[in-house]
Design goal:
Keywords: Cell inner membrane, Cell membrane, Cell shape, Cell wall biogenesis/degradation, Glycosyltransferase, Membrane, Peptidoglycan synthesis, Transferase, Transmembrane, Transmembrane helix. Pfam families: Transgly (PF00912). Pathway: Cell wall biogenesis; peptidoglycan biosynthesis. By secondary structure, the chain is mostly helical. The protein is about 65% helix and about 0% strand. Helix 1 packs across helix 6, helix 3 runs parallel beside helix 9 and helix 5 packs across helix 6. About 30% of the residues are buried.
Length: about 230
Amino acid sequence: MKIMRKLLFWLILVPVLLILLVQLYFFLQIGWWVNHNPDSTSFMRQQLSTLQEKNPNAQLKQKWVPYKRISNNLKRAIIASEDSNFSGHEGIDWEALEKAYEKNIKKGKVVAGGSTITQQLAKNLFLSGDRSYIRKGQELIITYMLEFWMDKERIFEIYLNVVEWGVGIFGAEAAAQHYYGTSAAQLNAEQAARLAVMLPNPRYYDTHRGTGYLGRRTDLILRRMNGAALP
């Protein structure tokens, strides 16, 4: 019986310690990124691996540009489209999460996330695109870590430089070049709004750029952009 208790103790303790070590790694890594730019993200590595299965020479398109060299049109468009309360919340929009939860209950599966920009960054940096409540829980923990270490501008700067915008396309500069042959700094309002609308499903819109929904949603975001508060 004593041996069984010891075995049970270690079976519980070891997983807990491993979980805590993983959280510590995330916490320290985010602290490093306050003043250093990420070289890659979990999403980048996953997509590069997928692309190289078909073409061993495949490379991602991504170029880091400072926050001030990204068009305010794009910043406003993304906030208007993805997270209208970005400057006001502490990383999580609980009302949006509640609506997503209710939608998931009705559908009987996870179909909506209610994620803020900070949550999306947490997922892109460390996690995967799989939908589950366990992954969502880890995402929330990392979100609070990001908000602890960084101000909103730094969070948004990293997001703008690493978010996926198409097949092998990551970051605002690569997206501006890929879709419009211009720089992230030179994006006009309509171009910015269209790019923002593509974010929930960028690989699809990379090859379906003329859909009716994309046009209608772009018009809506154009009307909302002026009211978007920048960090």
